[in-house]
Amino acid sequence: MFYDVKLVFQKFLQYNLYMSAVGTIEIEKIERRVRFCDYLCVAQLFLQDNFLLDRELSFNDVKPRLLGHWGTCHGINLAYANLKSIYAEDENFLFVLGPGHGFPALNANLWLDKELEKIDEKATLDRAGLEYLCKTFSWPDGFPSHASPMTPGIITEGGELGYALANAYGLALGHPEKTIAVLIGDGELETATALDSLNLRDLFDASNNGKILPILHLNGYKISAPSIYARKSERELNEMIRGFGFTPLSFNGDDIDVFQKVLKSESNSPFFIMKTEKGKGGPNSHHESHQIPLKNAKTDESELKALAEWLTSYAPQKLFQEVIQ
Predict the structure, then answer these.
(1) For the structural domain made of 25-323, what CATH number should be given?
(2) 86: exposed, middle or buried (Cβ count in 10 Å: 0-12, 13-18, 19+)
(3) Each residue of 203-262: pLDDT tens digit?
């Protein structure tokens, strides 16, 4: 049998272009989701009205009391979006959030996946539900500023900060069908419980229990200072992780293509190290973005303007149409 070499080559190119296009479409979908959830985080923290910026932002649109944390939200959104793109159809996949203070991010993602609607009929995946989500965050009789037991998948008040990895191993015991991703803050890993939980890998029989995917969110800062692990060299951090029996896999969290490849790798006992800039996209950087970056947006004209520019940078109405409709 003789092959038309030119035709075979054309088919090869068409196939690879098709595969590249599928990859590109998925990456763009993840990026849109992250941007939209980033916007929802800011809207939850600040807005009591004008939730999709239908008109010019005013002092009346800003909540009278600003509560919550922004700095870690972008990283949480990156981790959640990338994981869900792989495990969306897996009923045995679970996500454990260590930095529960980054609740606006988890709240946004649960709303987008229609998980909130299961426990609150007002949290519908439409414009009315979006307004309800944002207005009632840190609001009387609404959503709290931190993760709490009313949140799907959360069992403790304030989230699992410090003992997230221990909880993940507990959830996996006796359940080999489960895959559990656990996001650990770099400040959180400084706690005795979190650090000691790394030893659980040695006590864990993978054949009889679920799969654990630890993800260290290395954004460099905790409340007001650099984290210890941000000060270590990459080699030092990797050797520490290896010492606990894990395979460290470091990557830039904003590189979606690399993120996907790393998550799909077949490494033995992987320990993902996701690097992001704390508070990326906001008006402040590093430790200044930990909680509320623009604390006086309700009364200060310059801060209101900065908030408006921040919110507008996401093009929320366009994102809403692309992601929801």
Answers:
(1) 3.40.50.970
(2) middle
(3) 888 789 999 999 999 998 887 788 999 899 999 999 999 999 999 999 999 999 999 999
